[in-house]
Design a protein that fits this description.
Number of helices: 8
Low-confidence stretches: none
Strand content: 25-35%
CATH topology of the largest domain: Rossmann fold
Bound molecules: flavin-adenine dinucleotide, FE2/S2 (inorganic) cluster
Structural class: alpha/beta
CATH class of the largest domain: Alpha Beta
CATH superfamily of the largest domain: Nucleotide-binding domain of ferredoxin-NADP reductase (FNR) module
Shape: globular
Length: 358
């Protein structure tokens, strides 16, 4: 775990005005290490403005195709790494990359006879595209029903690749694109669209109900995969629960981030005691910094990966004091009750904070 390898950038492709895909060259001796399941992600490490930062990006390539490992990165407003990648990464650059990881993947098998519902919005298309391609190429008897939401026609990532897949697998792949703020008038869009398979609006409860009623499953063994912004995930899950889809059929990937601004005030210059790698560290937490960032800036090496509240690699136990977690997409209520916190998301609420990394 936590080992980074240096991979060379093979290709950089502008997908839309605000997104880029980056393909990596994996040397032969690392093939095994970088083996992946469709839906998994890579974690990248950069040093930006003198600070080490890590972010996770889902693979949009498929492990069953002879194609390089590829990620798709969409700019986040004022986001550090997403904008750095979109503005700076070029062919030939060497990037520090952790091997593929993640529990969001499809267990694709040749003999399967299933119906897959894929729900995605915005950059949430990346792991969904990998799953989609892998199913269509491997499971000859399975069906895929997919709905993909975007703001308008210009923000659709992997538009051509999706259209190509739709053409090649028309008998097994239904793709509905929905646009929340289409650029042209709807009559124009209908005229220009070949099959009128566009819808207006977001991927919300209403759209999900319509979609499932309109395109019921062919094979009765059904799995549901969801990836997109927080509200889209919540709405989709709620809509599926309303029609009694069991939890073990629903698979969700969250990219972190928050739909609303967190205005919780931290305790300024709180004293942090951290038990980490056999060390007893004492340092004060600067304004606006999390426990994890404070330790990294102090030259320590706490475990972490996504820095988005998703992977739980940065977990530690709070022994003294109180913290506020800006985002928690991985710890269970019981873990939180037992005092576990995500150090990448925790800011101090009290003067003294003591944490133990295990
Ligand atoms: C498992 C996993 C897979 C991911 N896969 C992808 C992927 O395939 N493509 C992709 O583009 N991104 C993906 N992400 C998100 C990515 O890791 C970063 O969080 C994202 O690029 C923002 O990082 P940043 O440094 O630009 O923003 P930061 O500087 O970290 O944040 C700036 C501001 O944006 C908000 N923010 C952070 N992340 C998001 C977000 N995802 N959406 C909206 N607001 C956000 C923050 O709350 C903050 O206010 C994935 C995340 C995880 C955990
Ligand atoms: S590093 Fe992933 S949740 Fe903190």
């Amino acid at each position: 775990m936590n080992t980074f390898y240096q991979l060379k950038v093979l290709e950089v492709k502008k997908e839309t005005a605000d997104s880029t895909s980056v393909a990596f060259d994996v040397p032969y001796d690392l093939y095994e290490t970088f083996n992946y399941k469709p839906g998994q992600y890579l974690t990248l490490k950069f040093t930006i403005n003198g600070e080490e930062v890590r972010r996770s990006y889902s693979l949009c390539s498929s492990p069953v195709l002879e194609e390089p490992l590829r990620i798709g990165v969409k700019r986040v407003k004022e986001g550090l790494v997403s904008n750095y990648i979109n503005d700076n990464i070029k062919v030939g650059d060497i990037v520090e990359v952790m091997p593929p990881d993640g529990r969001f993947f499809a267990d694709v098998k040749k003999g399967n006879y299933k119906t897959y519902y894929l729900f995605s919005a915005g950059s949430g298309i990346t792991p969904i595209l990998s799953i989609l391609k892998t199913i269509l190429l491997t499971e000859e008897r399975s069906y895929v029903h997919m709905i993909y939401g975007n703001r308008n026609q210009d923000t659709i990532m992997f538009k051509d690749e999706l259209e190509q897949l739709k053409m090649e697998h028309a008998d097994r792949f239904i793709l509905i694109q929905t646009l929340s703020r289409p650029k042209s008038t709807w009559s124009d869009l209908w005229k220009s669209s070949k099959d009128a398979a566009f819808k207006k609006g977001r991927v919300d409860s209403e759209a999900i109900h319509w979609f499932i009623n309109q395109y019921p499953p062919y094979a009765q063994n059904v799995a549901y995969y969801i990836c997109g912004p927080g509200t889209m995930i919540q709405n989709t899950k709620k809509a599926l629960k309303n029609i009694d889809v069991p939890d073990d059929r629903i698979f969700i990937e969250s990219f972190g981030g928050s739909d609303s601004k967190d205005t919780t005030e931290a305790f300024e210059n709180a004293k942090l005691t951290a038990h980490l790698n056999g060390e007893h560290i004492q340092v004060s937490i600067p304004k606006g910094k999390t426990i994890l960032r404070t330790l990294i800036n102090a030259g320590k090496k706490p475990p972490y990966s996504c820095e988005g509240g998703v992977c739980a690699t940065c977990i530690c136990k709070l022994k003294t004091g109180e913290v506020h977690m800006k985002n928690n997409l991985s710890l269970t209520d019981t873990e939180v009750k037992d005092g576990y916190i995500l150090s990448c998301q925790s800011i101090p609420l009290t003067e003294e904070i003591e944490v133990v990394y295990q």
